[in-house]
């Protein structure tokens, strides 16, 4: 499967990461001797099931390297636009591809094993989109104190991952819905307008199961989608705050010393 990394985004004044980035792309923040995105590239290079890689949002002069075919494309105006651009680029360059792996540049702890797990889960794909989530207990076991934001369902506490599988064989029926989803993903009132106040109220009261949430969300988006529970916390451990940056810096320094990437949670 071909993969694209959404690497656009420069922390601006007021962003918690601005003092660290100082006008440079977030993807190039250094952790344990490498730019953050280089850790992601290394994992994609090590994954058996990844063929080619596209980076959207950085130029070739970023001094990144990969042993697999790698291409660079300019960033677009926002998160959604970068995702749609990556999807389109892979579709144009590989017309026979049915799916693409969408990866954020800010999950530097991701491992080849985690990537191959996700691709293997979607090899005999019957859905258009695979959304990945991580259980709170899995995240906290691997990264205690990460303080991720969780959705509290009937019997599960979940956070969104930053790596998903998208169907690319046809254009989405309504890009407007997807743009609203990207815009609303961290704003509860915008989420309410997209998914309905009643649904979010039931979620708040923990009356919604994962299966019902999956049906409701996919129905509102108009896609045939599926939610996957990841046994790998690394897929969802992104860098949004300074304490997460420091946590992952320590984690990756230890990994360099041990030279053994973690396996799936039990």
* Large-scale geometry: globular
Mean pLDDT across every amino acid position: 86
* CATH domain fold name: Spore Coat Polysaccharide Biosynthesis Protein SpsA, Chain A
- E-strand count: 11
Helix/strand/pairing category: alpha/beta
Helix and strand run: EHEEHEEHEHEHEEEHHHHEH
**Uncertain residue ranges:** none
How much of the polypeptide forms β-strand, as a percent range?
15-25%
The CATH homologous superfamily is termed: Spore Coat Polysaccharide Biosynthesis Protein SpsA, Chain A
CATH class: Alpha Beta
Count of runs of 4 or more consecutive helical residues: 10
Q: What's the story with the biggest beta sheet?
A: 9 strands, mixed
End-to-end distance, in Å? 27 Å
Question: What Rg is obtained from the alpha carbons, in whole angstroms?
Answer: 18 Å
Number of domains: 1
Q: Roughly how much helix do the residues carry, as a percent range?
A: 25-40%
Assigned CATH architecture:
Alpha-Beta Complex
